[in-house]
Request: fold
Amino acid sequence: MHSRFAARCLIALATVLVGPTAHASSERHRWPRWPTEFSRVIAPLRDDHTRDRERDHDRIEAVLGLDVYATALIEPWLLRALGDPSTSVKREALRLCFERELVTCVPSALAIWSSVTEPMLRVAALRVVGLHPAGAGLDALLGALRDDNDTMRAQAAIVLGTAALHGAARGRASAALLAKLGDLSASVRQNAVEALSALGSSDATLPIARLLEDAEPGVRLAAARALGQIGDPRAVAALARGLEAVNEPAVVRAHLGAVAVLPGAAAIDVLLAAFDEPPAGLSATDVADLIGLRPDPEPAVLDGMALRLRDPSGARLALRTLALYGAASTAVLRRELQRGVSPELALEIRQVIATADIPIRVAEPRVATPIPAPAPGTDGLAARRSAPTAVGLAEIDRLAATGGWGPGLDAAFVAGGAVVDHRVELALAAAVGPKAALGRWDRRPVATLVGWAKDRTHVAADRCLALLALGSVDPQAVGAPMALLAADALLADPDPRVRACALVPWYALETRPDARALLDDDPRVRTTAVLLAARRGLERRDRGRIALLAATDPDARVRLVATWARRTPAVGVGVGAPAWHHGGAVDPSGRWMRVALPNGPRIWLPVLTLGGVAFAWSPLPDAAASPEE
Reply:
């Protein structure tokens, strides 16, 4: 029954073409709508006689209820809650102080840090102290870095790395963190390295370089990344030694990635040597791609790659690296054409030159469009639940357009349950897109969607529906980081269909493109990544890779969509809602469906199957399913 109903719903959605929608406003906190609304919320905090263990739950709920209101309104009540005898009340108040970046909470947080022993409460207080680490606040952070508890020292290092430190305070923090590079706890060493890289002090280069030989892989990985971020060329020698040692592939990649961004002739020598003989754990293609990350390739790099272009065994990998450099490499490539190369290689070089001059489309800033909270008791899905067989295109379209879905979607996902019982809500959330602002009022819907997306016992289509719905999470919601972490993790899922769907919440919640997807082994993932990047607007960071796909990708479907992406105007920063497609021609493998682009070619999109019905989706609102073969 559920499968037939979901199939009918998805078929109806195939004709719903959703246009670009505005992202939720960054001002997600509101003022009360009627005079007594806020008074009822704070009542448990107002009455001193209720401050007893029997009424702890009421005061915790009151603090949680403050989260939807404007910061100026809740600030005095948060300060009052910080003096509450209940540990849970203080912890929730500290969380809100940290999220709202209320410096006025720092004195109370310092008092809590000094007077309590409960570890989690002390950590919460420490994070608030980091909002303004001056005077006694900085002393508290440095003292926490010397605490007997490993977790406390590790948390102190994290806070120092993100705190707003200036002048002498920055120097004191750096010195304290340098001392922690020899800590017995691996997590403390790793966090200290990351904090020092965030501070960007070149004095930390050599001490961090010594940790490239640490016994813990996580510490070695953090040290390699930190050296690349600090940008001191003195680190090249230590990184080169690390490339020759036995290491995990991720650690080797971090070593070479750090060398790729460091300036100087020594770094160039290491890169070219790695190209000629890839370090253990990296393929030749991995090395070519990492060398292609060099921000401003010097003539020595370009000439070195041009020389290797003449070697038939490495010519195509050298061309791959030069293609990633974009316009910076066209002069060298033209020179190689003039001196003479094989006809096959000449054709590929001309393709790279032709695709190198890609226009950079600067993404438009997000338009802040406030989304009012729905009126209490309104539930646009009530009619659907009472008569589910009556749902069709008109009902889905009406709910998506009128906003009647607002509280209904959140409530449906809060309830949890089996994913097969929520396919309609998932499809509706995906159809509405960012305007749905899931999790705006409650973080629990995001947790439910993340759980469904990660559960490998579900079929790929159900996991994809959950991921597409995660693309509707409010970017400013408390649960948005949870959704982004899930998308990041699922970009490495074994199923390429899931990896492709994970790109939707990634591009909806993250500002930077994802290079992994553009280099994925599966063409379906590469196609999806190109479409999402084109929707947002090709940036400098991804233009070289898409040019490479347009010129050299082994799959013609990827080359076609990459070529189209370079020529089409960007739709906007937000990926918006996906357009559903049903009834298009499906290739014999059952993995691709043909879709016609407006004023463009017919392209192939990845196929999902649910209830025996094949459908596809794309971030392009004006595409239409194409039944022609």
